[in-house]
């Protein structure tokens, strides 16, 4: 009992009066509420980050709709960039004033997955980030006596976030942090799905289903690998036009024509070598498999709602040697890939600005979700003041 009281006292001592505005979800299906929260000082192996910007991602929308379970109340947001404001004990390689892009997949840097170059499979993420708590099982946000969770142990829909040191990736200042925030999820996932997960070779034919932030990043990844043709599939002309401007050679409006038939027609009946599904819809996943050429690979990049199921023809998969590949976070290694992606942006290989539809204030986050639900625009980016 005395040890528990000491631990509680130590935890309470970390809350030293710092407050921040954050958008809080209190129950699935409800609008987010902008509230003033108390923010803890960072513990051991943790850093406090002052957010400069946060992208609004469809994964956050899944939680708001109740399609994915999460502890409540919770500050959503997992695609952010900012500046280190404080560091806890035993933090290495980061100091106050560093610009960082946040990763929603913390890693231990010691397990077999980390040392073999697959940190996205490290058990650290499942152990605490997927539960929206810190490594000790507690949160660093509260409102009075109420603990408030941070989505994926980040919670970037707030002015400050306390994160595990492995989730804060130091970056150079060649790209504005408002744009760099997108690297933390959409760009790492979509670009990485092509380059890291699928390893698309030059000249391979590619179809990308869904032209949101992740899909458009995949289009840019396919262009960077000199793939072709690059076929973008979506329900919105605006997104198809942008996909063409970013490297797609063809656009297919899935609301006006059968996307499988259209893709096969573009490829002379052959089908594509790689089909990337970037939405997370069961029917779109099935279509990705159906549009493959012999020996082709369907890459599941989008995150489907809980308990989703697909139906595929197993005989065709075995007879034509098709592959269905799972893709988590673009198979990225954040400390290596984030700086590289930003360098590609600085050199004009990746266009981050083209993917930003609007810059908004924190109080506009519900409008951003509404636009997302209607399929309007691309990425909304929350920009925080000084």
What does this structure look like?
The chain is an alpha/beta fold and 386 residues long. It has 2 domains: 2-184 and 352-383, Medium-chain alcohol dehydrogenases, catalytic domain (Quinone Oxidoreductase, Chain A, domain 1, Alpha-Beta Complex); 190-328, Rossmann fold (3-Layer(aba) Sandwich), CATH 3.40.50. 29% of the residues lie in helices and 25% in strands. The strands form 3 sheets. Strands 3, 5, 6, 9, 10, 17 and 18 form a 7-stranded mixed β-sheet that branches. Strand 14 (272-277), helix 10 and strand 15 form a beta-alpha-beta unit.
Spatial shape: globular
User: According to CATH, what is the class of the largest domain?
Assistant: Alpha Beta
Number of strands: 18
Poorly predicted regions are none
N-to-C terminal Cα separation, in Å?
43 Å
Q: What is the tally of helical segments?
A: 13
The amount of helix comes to 25-40%
Give the CATH H-level superfamily of the largest domain.
Answer: Medium-chain alcohol dehydrogenases, catalytic domain
The percentage of residues in β strands lies in 15-25%
Provide the CATH topology of the largest domain.
Answer: Quinone Oxidoreductase, Chain A, domain 1
* Count of domain modules: 2
Task: Say what oligomer this is.
Answer: single chain
């Amino acid at each position: 009992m005395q040890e528990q009281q000491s631990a509680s006292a130590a935890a309470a001592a970390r809350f030293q009066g710092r407050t921040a505005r954050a958008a809080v979800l209190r129950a699935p299906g409800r609008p987010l509420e902008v509230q003033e929260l108390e923010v803890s000082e960072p513990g051991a192996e943790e850093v406090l980050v002052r957010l400069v910007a946060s992208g609004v991602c469809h994964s956050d929308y899944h939680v708001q709709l109740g399609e994915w379970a999460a502890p409540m109340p919770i500050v959503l947001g997992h695609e952010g960039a900012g500046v280190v404001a404080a560091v806890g004990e035993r933090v290495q390689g980061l100091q106050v004033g560093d610009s960082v892009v946040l990763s929603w997949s913390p890693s231990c840097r010691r397990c077999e997955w980390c040392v073999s170059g697959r940190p996205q499979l490290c058990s650290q993420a499942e152990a605490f980030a997927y539960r929206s708590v810190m490594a000790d099982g507690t949160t660093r946000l509260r409102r009075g006596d109420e603990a408030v969770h941070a989505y994926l142990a980040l919670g970037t829909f707030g002015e400050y976030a306390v994160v595990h040191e492995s989730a804060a990736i130091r970056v150079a200042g060649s790209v504005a942090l408002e744009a760099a925030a997108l690297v933390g999820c959409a760009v790492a996932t979509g670009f990485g799905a092509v380059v890291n997960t699928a390893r698309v070779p030059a000249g391979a034919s590619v179809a990308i289903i869904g032209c949101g932030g992740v899909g458009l990043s995949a289009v840019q990844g396919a262009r960077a690998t000199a793939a072709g043709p690059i076929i973008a599939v979506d329900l919105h002309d605006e997104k198809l036009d942008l996909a063409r401007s970013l490297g797609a050679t063809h656009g297919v409006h899935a609301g006006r024509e059968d996307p499988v038939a259209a893709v096969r027609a573009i490829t002379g009946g052959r089908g594509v070598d790689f089909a990337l599904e970037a939405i997370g819809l069961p029917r779109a996943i099935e279509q990705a498999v159906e549009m493959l050429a012999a020996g082709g690979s369907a890459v599941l990049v989008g995150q489907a709602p809980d308990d989703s199921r697909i139906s595929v023809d197993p005989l065709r998969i075995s007879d034509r040697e098709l592959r269905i590949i799972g893709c988590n976070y673009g198979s990225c290694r954040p400390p290596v890939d984030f700086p590289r992606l930003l360098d590609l942006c600085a050199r004009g290989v990746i266009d981050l600005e083209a993917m930003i539809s609007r810059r908004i204030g924190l109080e506009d986050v519900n409008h951003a979700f509404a636009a997302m639900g209607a399929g309007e625009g691309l990425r909304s980016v929350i920009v925080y003041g000084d």
